[in-house]
UniProtKB/TrEMBL annotation:
Family under the similarity heading: Belongs to the zinc-containing alcohol dehydrogenase family.
Keyword Transmembrane helix: yes
Protein name: Zinc-binding dehydrogenase
Naturally occurring in which organism (per UniProt): Candidatus Stercoripulliclostridium merdipullorum
Parts of the chain that traverse the membrane: 152-172
Sequence ranges assigned to domain Alcohol dehydrogenase-like C-terminal in this UniProt record: 161-288
GO MF: metal ion binding; oxidoreductase activity
Length: 328
């Protein structure tokens, strides 16, 4: 097994090792999409007791016949990145994630429990399967409130996760409004069928949302907790008595500061979502139904040997790509 690990010193170190494969299924990793938490590991923003292999958004192929599981050599699979048997610093059970709470997928081979392996549904492409975790988190955000047909949902934050959330609003027959200061994401959202997009750098966002909603503001607001997002939109764009959700792919996220007085004045319900474990199977089904468009996300692919160069480049400029991928 060849891999890249980091000690949080802005370097990736190549290594080789052997993994205990007892009662596990051996996979050949196919592609990995680095995300913000991988960069947080790389940059030392996540405490590490020892070097860790990053990567939790990946696809793979089965590297051996496993008839007892109905898996054949060469079968393409999605990887469920969630670990159910981890504990937090106080010893309480929590849902962990490969690449954060255990070594991740930036390697050529890995052995995993069968529960973490999902065969590709028919006609699903790799560029779609790679984002199953993001879909599961967006689903968890939507399942934290009740969506009615025709309701307005303001999604704040230009990102793959934000665009997926906006598309989910369409799936639920709601009306999404995507807000970002990065025109690339607004253009992609429009290509994905999102009619209302707002460039917060060029427009008065609150006034525009008021115009779109006929003065009532958004029935639900969702903010992707990422660098550069405007957190106060969580409350300022929300209608009285509405739901407000802060979502992130996992619990490594930048600090957000908001004025809670507006939440009290408007009687808002505020929730946080950083895990899509319970929604992963639903995410796979949704991807299989071809309800979401992923075709505009991956705009950079590098070979495994250039992983260090890609991480270095992303650390210097995290926003240069919509979604970069590493071909193993």
């Amino acid at each position: 097994m060849k891999y890249f690990s980091t000690s949080g010193d802005r370097t990736l170190v190549a290594g080789e090792g052997v993994q205990d494969e007892t009662d596990l299924v051996r996979l050949k990793i196919s592609m990995v999409v680095p995300c913000a938490s991988d960069l947080a590991l790389y940059e030392g923003k996540v405490p590490l007791a020892k070097p860790r292999i990053p990567g939790h958004m990946a696809t793979a192929v089965v590297s051996e016949d496993r008839e007892e599981y109905g898996l054949k050599l060469g079968a393409r699979v999605m990887i469920n990145p969630y670990i159910l048997s981890t504990k937090d610093a106080e010893g309480y059970s929590k849902v962990g994630v490969y690449g954060l709470n255990a070594d991740g997928f930036l390697r050529d081979f890995i052995a995993l429990p069968i529960d973490n392996i999902v065969p590709f549904p028919e006609d699903v492409k790799e560029q779609e399967a790679l984002f199953a975790e993001a879909v599961s988190v967006a689903l968890a955000a939507f399942n934290s409130f009740r969506v009615e047909k025709g309701e307005y949902i303001a999604v704040v934050g230009g990102s793959v996760l934000g665009i997926i959330a906006a598309q989910l609003a369409l799936y639920y027959q709601a009306i999404p409004i995507l807000i970002s200061n990065d025109r690339r994401y607004l253009e992609i959202a429009s290509k994905c069928g999102v009619y209302y997009v707002i460039d917060e750098a060029a427009e008065n966002t609150a006034r525009r949302v008021m115009e779109i909603t006929g003065g009532r503001m958004a029935d639900h607001t969702i903010v992707h907790d990422k660098a550069g997002v405007t957190p106060n939109f969580l409350f300022t764009l929300a209608a009285h008595g509405s739901d407000c959700v802060v979502m992130s792919l996992n619990d490594t996220m930048p600090r957000l500061e908001v004025d809670l007085s507006l939440a009290v004045q408007k009687n808002l319900t505020v929730k946080g979502v950083s895990c899509g474990c319970d929604e992963f199977n639903s995410a796979v089904n949704l991807i299989a139904q071809k309800q979401l468009d992923f075709s505009h996300f991956i705009d950079k692919v590098v070979p495994f040997a250039e992983s260090g160069d890609l991480f270095r480049s992303l650390s210097d400029n995290p926003d240069q790509y919509i979604a970069a991928a590493i071909r193993i």
